[in-house]
Amino acid sequence: MSLVCRERGVRLWACALATLWILGTAAAAETRGGREDERATVARLEQGVKFKKGRFRLQTEHWRIETEVSPRFTAELGRFMELFLDRFTVLTGLLSSRSRVSMRPIVVVFASPARYEKETGLSDTRGLFRPRRVGTGAFTSLEIYTYVDDGSGDFADFDLEVLQHEGTHLLLQKYLGLAEVPSWFTEGLATRFEHWDLRLGAAENEKSCHEATARRVLHGGRFRPVPPIESLLAIDRGIRHDHGLLMTQFNYVASAAFVDFLIASDERKPLLTQIFQRISRGVDSRRLLTSEELLALGPAWKEYWYALHKEAWDR
Question: pTM of the entire structure?
């Protein structure tokens, strides 16, 4: 890690990724049930749950939790979100000297898909990250919305991937503040880290995340030529382009694959730091990589893209 962290031009992001690998190799705490201290934490949090305006509400150290499920579910969700933040501190807390959005983010879980659709107006998503602001001014809140399936109030059955996906969006925005985060960057990271299992070590997680990326490429990018890096950088205003479902899916696939491509090599990891810093300075998405960097990355990206296809197909 020290070589990566000391390399010129490599600042917080590369150090964070290297630190994540080291921390992840330690025995990670179980995320659901099991140990006495975890049950005690949930029980303590449950005592703080209040019912107000149709929702069970809990304020933890770093989060505001609101659910339509139960006090126990609310407490378990509060514990998980604290654990999520703790595990991702190496990815978020080190990206900036301080958070640029000070208020506690809010996580809302509705009691059914119908309730979610009614409140968000969406029927084709499982989760939503919604930053709220007044005009072009500062954010007033950062919020995540999701739901439990009808009749399901057991946190053990809850879709944690949605929380981690939308939570990645939220934490990136929290540390980048009002900077415009390009869709390929935030969706690529969120799609990758939604598969991160907080109960497992880093080696297992890196393997499973890479395999998930390969499966996505096989199903969503099958028989598609390698997308030019310049085209990925152009996905900067809403990843759902007006080209139908296939193109939408392909944008997610290509973004996740490009992030995996950068993370997979110690030589390329420093670029994530530089990209993050350029985003924070307001650099246009299309200019986040220099012409020299694009030229250097091109052949390796092409080789990586087709190797992913072969890897997934061989499985």
Answer: 0.80
